[in-house]
Amino acid sequence: MKNLKNLLLLLFIAFFVSNCSTTKKTSSHKIIKPEIVEAEELYVPHIKAERKTFFKGSEAEDRWVDSVYSQMPLNERIGQLFMVAAYSNKNEEHFSSLEKLVSDYKIGGLIFFQGGPSRQAKLTNRFQSKSKLPLFIGIDAEWGLSMRLDSTYRFPWNMTLGAIRDLKLIERVGEQMGKETKRMGIHFNFAPVIDINTNPLNPIIGNRSFGEDKKNVTDRAIALMTGVQNQGVFSTGKHFPGHGDTSTDSHHTLPMVNFSRERIENVELYPYKRMFDEGLESVMVAHLNVPSLEPRENYPTSLSHNVVTDLLQKEMQFEGLIFTDALNMKGASSFKKPGDIDLEAFLAGNDILLFAENVPVAVEKITQAYNDSIISDDRIAQSVKKILHYKFKAGLNKYKPVELNNIVSDINPVDNVSLQYQLYENAITVLKNDNDVLPIKNLETKIAYVKLGDDSNTPFVSTLKKYTEVTEIELNSADSLNLQLKNFDLVILGFHKSDKAWKKHDFTDKELQLIQEIAKNNKVILDVFAKPYSLIPVTDFSEIEGLIISYQNGDIAQEVSAELIFGAIEAKGVLPVSINDNFKFNDGLSTEKVDRLGFTTPENVGMSSSKLAEIETYAKKAIDGKMAPGMQILVARKGKVVYQKSFGYHTYKKQTKVQNSDIYDVASVTKMVSTLPNVMQLFDKGKVNLDTRLGELLPLFKSTNKDSISFKELLSHNARLQAWEPFYKETLDIDKCPADKYYSLFYKKGFTKQVAENLYIRDDYQDTIMKKIVDSKLLPKKEYKYSDFTFIILKDYLEKATGKSIDELSTQHFFKPLGMNNTMYNPLRKFDMSVIPPTDDDTYFRHATIQGYVHDMEAAMEGGIAGHAGIFSNAMDIAKMMQLFLNKGTYSGKQYFSPQTFDVFNTRYFETEGSRRGLGFDKPQLGKEGPTCGCVSSKSFGHTGFTGTMAWADPETEIIYIFLSNRTFPDSNAANKLSKENIREDIQRIIQEAIIK
Predict the structure, then answer these.
(1) Residue pLDDT, tens place only, 967-987
(2) Could you say which DSSP state residue 149 is in?
(3) How does strand 353-354 pair with strand 82-86?
(4) Is 372 a residue of the active site?
């Protein structure tokens, strides 16, 4: 426990709970509304002539309006006042009834609700074809078309956008919304919601609001509106005069807004005044009971002449289109019957009657009122001509049907995903960061994760695990949890609630208790994937070291939040609402960004998603051509992973699909990710230099034909060493099976190095291998010749120089601090065989399926731990090492070796003699043949491996490319079709071609 007071608090809580356990619990959490300063200086609107306009009028517009209006009989004029609800997910009976309203009653428009984009577009064309005058099409798309339509993209809620400081990002959201609605033939997006949510318990606005501060709300609403209207689509500000401080839902009843006129002028009307000056084209009037604006008791604002005409049009001088909120809502429909309510709404001054429940009756009522001189010609002309003006501005004077081809792909551009990453990178808010618990810098920290809430957490957890080892702990009682958590250094609590707007985001009482109990006994980061208000019941934050609001539980929100926790991005968001007295509007801490790999879309780093998608073609070609049963492919640029996919299966039997988390035998890539960085560290410390002789490195080479080989020659494969030696053959018996002289079928003294399942080699045989290398002949000519001997020698040198095994060195110096927790020698010590694709059905040495044991025979004879082979890893882990190299020796804020050392090793020293190699690194070919596509820079570096692997990085383009496969299975002696068909190289070419800037 952190201190004694926690124990006393726990006893008090236990006593309190036991005494209240027989009582039915209701929410008793104290709710503190934000303070509103009514005396603040009022906004002074511009004169009308200075107001911005997105849709300028013209003489042609005036002529068209007058011409059309003059030819319309009364019934057609009245019909224009109605916008009727349409659903593309309903049946033909519904469609026919709408068609009848279009044909017979000449209605002015349709507001679409639930359905799908293709179905809606077809219906739009159908109804437009039946309409004498083209219809307005409207939709509630507050967070994009997905608010109503399936197969469409969902942008964040306004509350999430309220946390973003960069208004240009919000304008881009509006632009994307505008493009998509326009593509669908939609003219009005009934958004943004500009209600100021000053009541945390508001049952209908909440997340739909940008927040509680009038300026914050207005700035963001203007940005969103600007983006939408720049695309030629009309924005509709709602819900006038302000639905933000209500405690009931106008869909079900008539909410009360019981504030003074001064307060409403200063707060609720503030966004409208500014937005009118900024060019807002339409307004939706809410069904509210506002006594200070409408003295008649329980009289809805949507039906109030005082509100719609006197306040909105006369006082505020709004000349755009005015919509009622849906007239089927109980806030209005309970007041009068269908028809009567439509008449009342029109008399109040509304232009368009939204969601009329009975158009024929309403038309009859309005016609009768006209005949009775209750409604004048001027009143009808005022609204209908205004409607016609907006139809002209919408281009309906030259109507074109919606193009149906490619409509789903057109309204789901990859730009949406790219923008979504940027939005969450800017929105996610850190409210507590005691002792700099964020970001997690030490990747050797023992971390547990506990899930709260009832929604998906997969993207969050999987992304956390891409950084380091994170153990998931099942949610049970507080006692059992604390027992399980006692061996961990840090606990991440993730609260995951449904990302659907109308779902509850509340903690359960059990969860609230668990948070407090876990926080008392552990260092805790609480990450809330729900609206900020969900934190109101948390009474004590003192024991919670890190507190993050991620706002929503979508995949990208989860991924980005995990990035923030590990420092791949910094925290930028600010709180759009207050959380009682604990956290105030605009609170938000910045956190440190460390140079770790993050995640985003290709477009965000100047690459093309569509081009990278072509990688799949080559992956499929390789699998179908039996060049490899499966593979992992990763592409990163500018420190961001932009492509990570797995293809195929572990074997051609197609029983186990390859997952991104599976680990492959990377073969000779071991040289670059294990041995080489350790050698670079010793070089950096001055333990060795380019001219150091092999006889100095290892005394057993003194006075031999290899004594004078320099370090530079050795690592450049320019030392005249033999390419390799099949050492295993001398250990086989007459039947070409492992001889008893050298092998044991079980672990015992002197036979502790495991070669395969139930097969162990003599511990001293490594000395025999080294002696054979010492005694081997040198090649007659000094030229480039790739040799495994180099890294077998370097492993021996490292271990003798440091007194540690290469396994220990790599794990302690690199793999653990880099978070390469899936990278190791002899992976069966940690991982189940089921996550390791096999590499061979060995019929020549071990006579077994090689799975989880290194494929390379010599490395196997070293017990699976060698300098030239033996590492198992996945694409994500290898990418971390490649990013370390790209960063010239730094990663996660830690320097592993100097930039100068990296430059020394990434240099060709024998290029004039025809060698492409750096020191340990492979480099692009000098001629036509080589390891790359021939399209990467000369500064690029990497390595390939016999099992069908490749890791490559290019400092000029900042691109990392990883390809891992088990192309050797089931027969490693078969022709290397993967290489002959240039699959890895062709994929690298696609990656290069994907660069757009």
Answers:
(1) 999 999 999 999 999 999 999
(2) B
(3) parallel
(4) no
